[in-house]
Amino acid sequence: MKLTPEQQRILEGTKGKTIAKVMETLVRYGELFGAESMVEITSKYNHLVTSFGLKGLASIYTLFDQLIEEGAVSKQQFSVDPRPMDPNVPSSLLQKLVFKKLMYTKQEEYERQLEQLGILNDKAYTCTCYMDEVGNTPKQGEILSWSESSAVVYANSVLGARCNRNSGIIDLMGSIVGYVPNFGLLTDQGRKAKWIIEIRTSKKPEAQLLGSAIGMKVMEDVPYIIGLDKWLGTLDDQTKTYLKDFGAATASNGAVGLYHVEGITPEAAQQGRALLAEDAKTYAIDDAELQRVYDSYPVIWKKQDAKPKLCFMGCPHMSYEQLITWSRRILKGLKEAKRTKVAIPTVFTAAPQVIARFNETKYSKALKKTGVIVSYICPLMYMNNPLCGSMPVITSSNKLRTYTSARYYTDEEILQQITTGGIKA
Amino acid sequence: MKTFKGRVVSPGKVKAIALVSHGGLNTLASFQKALQFGDKNATCGDQNNAELYGKQMAGKALCLPRTIGSTTGGLVLYCACSMHRQPACMLFSEPIDSLAAAGAILADVWLEDVTMPVIDSLGEEFLNYVKDGMQVYVGEDGTVRIG
Q: What pLDDT score was predicted for residue B104?
C-alpha cells in the first residue's frame, strides 16, 4: 500500500506507539483486500457495533483502556448499537440474575470508556443511528468507518455513502487515525452489481423474506433489484422503513453490504443499469421462491409447538413511521378480536430519540394500554444467552431469527398472533 | 497425503486435528459459550451450523469457507485468542472475509503471546477433501498438508 507522508509518519510512530499499531492494523487489513491507499473519513460521525459490557470481552476493555491512556481516542464523535438491558423488558428472576451478575457485568464501566472515546451522548445507543431523530445520517459519497451490518448496508444503499463491512474495533481504529483502507465498497468498481434480481411476485414482497432470499443467494455480492420499484413507489418514509428491514435481512442472512433498487436507491436512480457488472448473474424471485425460503427456516425451539412467551419487533430498531403503523394495526386487530390486551407479551424496540417522538403522539398511551412495551433494548443481546435457547420467542425480524432461537413469522402472522393468540389456518 | 497452497493472512506453523464446516462460521454464535460461560474447549454454540454445533473448536484446525454474521465477528475472534480458546489455525477455502480478517490481524498485531496461523484462498477442493479428524500440518509459507 502506498501511504501519504503523514500516514507513513503515523505508522512509524511519530504520534506514539499505540497509534502506530492502530495504523499497522488498518494497513494490514486493507492490504489483504488489495487496497492501494488509505482514504480520509469524511462523514461527520462514526457508528460502532460494540455497545455491551459483556464480561467475556474483557480483553477489548483492556485494549480500550490502553487507547484512552495514550490519547488514541476517536477524532469523530460516534453512536453505538443499542444497550443490552432495559428493566422494562419482561425477564424472569433467573434471566435478570444472569444478565446483571454473569453476562453484562462490565456495562457501566464500558459506557464510561465510550464517553472517554467520544460517544455523542448517553442516548446515542441504537442500530438505526441514521434515523432523522438520531441525526447520524451521512450524505451520498461520504466515506465512513462504520460497523453494524444493518447500518452499513443502509448507509451504502439508501443514503449512497461509502463504507465497508467493518468489524468492531476496526470501526473505532479508522476514527482514531482518520483514514480507512480504500477497497471494496469504497470504490466505484466494488459498487458494481454482480447479480440482477428480478422481482416477479404477485404482491408487495415481505421485506424480511425478500432480503433473506437475496442474502442467501448472493452472499457478499452486490445485487441490483429490478421490479421492486413497482411496489415501493418513491423513497419516502415508508419505503425507507421497508429498505431498513430488507437490508438487515440481506446482511444477516448473507453478507450484503450494498444493494441497488432500480428507480429507488440514489445510485440506481442516477446511474441505472450502468451499475451492472458485465458478467452479472440473474436470480428471479416469485411467490413460490419466497415460500420455499420461508419453509426452509429451521424451528429450533425445544418444544416445536410451544405457545410463544414473547414477541420482539424491531431488529433493527423500528422507525417512527413503523411505530405508528404498528400501533394502528394492533389497535384495529384487538378491536376486531374483541380484546383490550395483546395475547402475547410484546416488545417494540426503537432508538431513544424515536421513542421520545412517538411518546408525544396519541398512539403512545393507546399502545401502552394494550400491554405492548416500547424499549430501547437490543433484542439480539437480550436473547444471546443459553436461557433464551429454550424460550419460545417470535419475531418478524430475519436478523433475530438468524442469530438466535427466535422463530420468524411474517408481519401479518405476527399481528394475528399478538392480537388473537393464534394464526388463521 | 495431499497438499494445498493458500495465502498467508497470519503466519505460523502448526499441527492439529481438522474440524470442518462447509457452511460459514457464525463467529458470535459459535464462540459465545467460550467467551461468556468459561468453556475452555470453545464448544460451538451455533445451533444453525449442524456440522460444528456442540463440537470443540479450541485447538482444532478449523477448516471453513468463510465467516458470517454479526460485525462483532472480528472482536469476538480477538477475544477468543486473548483467552487462549481459539482454534489452532483457521483455514479458509475462499478469500478471507472482512470480519475474520479483522479478528486475525487484531490478534496478530495486539496480542503478544498468541499465535493462530490463518491461511485463506485454499480452494474448493481443499474443503471437499478435508474431513473431521484428519491430521493437518500448516507451514509458514501457506502450505497445508493433510493426512
A: 97
- Measured between alpha carbons, how far is residue B87 from residues A8, A65, A352, B37, B39 in Å? 34, 27, 39, 18, 13
Nearest CB neighbour to A54, from listed B35, B69, B108: B35
Predicted local confidence at residue A301, as pLDDT:
87
- The beta strand positions in A42-160, using DSSP E, are 46-48, 78-80
CA–CA dist A208, A399 (Å, integer): 9
A354: closest CA among A332, A322, A378? A322
Domains identified in chain A, total number: 3
Range of the domain at A400: 310-420
Model pLDDT, residue A424: 65
Q: Which residues of B touch A35 (CB under 8 A)?
A: none
Residue A405 has pLDDT above 80, yes or no: yes
Dump pLDDT digits (tens) for A79-116. 999 999 999 998 888 888 888 888 899 999 999 999 99
A88, A129: one domain: yes
Note whether A389 contacts B: Cβ–Cβ < 8 A: yes
- Residue B15 β-bridge partners: B137
B141 vs chain A: nearest CA distance in angstroms?
A: 16
Interchain pair B71, A385: CB under 8 A: no
The distance in angstroms from the start CA to the end CA of chain B is 5
With beta carbons under 8 A apart, name residues in chain B contacting A167.
Answer: 71-75, 98-99, 102-103
What tens digit of pLDDT does each residue of A221-240 get? 999 999 999 999 999 999 99
CATH of the domain at A91: 3.30.499
A119 touching chain B per CB within 8 A: no
Q: What is the pTM of this model?
A: 0.95
Residue A11 located in a structural domain = no
| Least CB–CB distance from A165: residue in B9, B98, B108 | B98
Split at pLDDT 50, 70, 90, the class of A391 is confident
Interface test with chain B among A167, A177, A393, A404, by most B beta carbons within 10 Å: A167
Using CB atoms, which residue from B28, B47, B79 is nearest to A60?
B79
Q: How far is A124 from chain B (nearest CA, A)?
A: 18
Residues B42 and B56 sit within 8 Å (Cβ to Cβ)? yes
A55 touching chain B per CB within 8 A: yes
**Domain B2-146 bears CATH identifier 3.40.830.10:** no
